Amino acid sequence: MHLGIRVLGIPALLWLAAIFWSGANPQKTKSLAIDHVTVIDVDGGLELADQTVIVRGDSISVVAKSGSVEIPKDAQRIDARGKFLIPGLWDMHTHVAGINADPAWARQTLLPLLVANGITGIRDMGGDLDALESWRREIENGTLVGPQIVAAGPMLLPGRRPGAPTEAVDPAILRVRTAEEARAAVDSLQKRGADFIKIIEVSRGNYFAIADESKKNSIPFAGHIPSEITASEASNAGQKSIEHIIYSSLAFDCSAQGDELRQKMQEASAKRDSQASADITDQANHTFSAEKAAALWQTFKKNGTWVTPTLFSIWVNAHHLEMSPDDPQLAYLPASLRKQWTPAKNPAKDDRDTEAWWQRQFENDRKLTGEMNRAGVRLLAGSDSLDRYDFAGTSLHRELQMLVSAGLTPLEALQTATLNPTEFLVLAKSGRISPGYLADLVLLDGDPTADIANTIKVAAVVLRGRFLSREELDAMLAKARAAAAAMPTTSGDAK
After folding, report:
1. In this predicted model, what pLDDT tens digit does every residue of 371-407 receive, in sequence order?
2. pTM for this one?
3. Residue 7: what are its φ and ψ, rounded to 5°?
């Protein structure tokens, strides 16, 4: 967000091997048969009851009525009566190797959390590219258990203001001061293996330099919409996905007084008047124009611009003072980070006012999410973990619930974490349960199309053809907790 205010101790502008298996990889049979399962067709929402799904290698070979197909003699056979099978989930906005997540411990804690929660793919939106590339190689060669990783590497930010204190080198951040530096950053990141370019906040000229260079290099760019750019301009420039609603100021683009309020916001930001910035944001929310919003949604649809709302992360900001220092998810984080996240015991009125302001932003974000979905704008599920009390793994399930509360059906919410990501990322033969498709699957104890909260009821995970039972997933989590307890690593909190 570019309001120039500090909220929850985070500057507003900057808003797996998971474990080794004691050496050898888990034993994997030549094939896997999941029998008597209900398959969820995420395309049309059909429930295919009493199915047998056969996996050979890392791909699905057969989906057929149970009893109608011969199960290979070498198959590991799973009786899945009463259970539901969905494609593996994607979290399309994570930070697992930067911001609050130090790669030194995140590799051993966050990656197992993701897999154990049925997340078989992530789009990392800003982190240490060297670490992410290393993990990706280990995952691909089978020496590390973790999700498929699509990564941006460092996030692009403007140069430091004259006279600003010198900052430590952060591999999750790359500052650009000129158009030449912006273009060079795109070229460098692509050569280093980045899958896309992530923008947080840059000047107008540098933004369009990034857009132009990305187009020349055929590499997508995504992220926040900088304060000097409108959403329509970003969409027309080719920004593939817009991350967050408030941090990209979509309320201003949907306001009847949008131009006037943007000017006021620039003046307030120049003065570093945080209260004025917060009030102006409220004004943008209150002056919503259905006509302007409809025109913006049409622009998004015309240009193929996707949106990742990250509703849950905003909800957390609105309830931070209520968070428990005894939350069991904290056991997966080092002691130093747990201490840093501890809510104030005696919050002041300003703390309460800040939470109330965030609650208003959450409600507006939820409203705009519903508006976009009804208009046909394509949405992606993203958690924004590891933000404060925004835990890797479980937060994606909360995001799906928030999307349903915004007006999506359970099936539509499920699509934002299955079909939509694979279409967005142009991943062939992925995101569906069909012969020839990648065998990234999640076995659930409840029907997610009846109640989206059932996605958290993970009974087992199939990761590129490898069956991980609930017992194995629990063992991974136990090792992750032990690793976190042994690594009280200091982490930054800038975002």
Report:
1. 999 999 999 999 999 999 999 999 999 999 999 999 9
2. 0.92
3. -130, 130
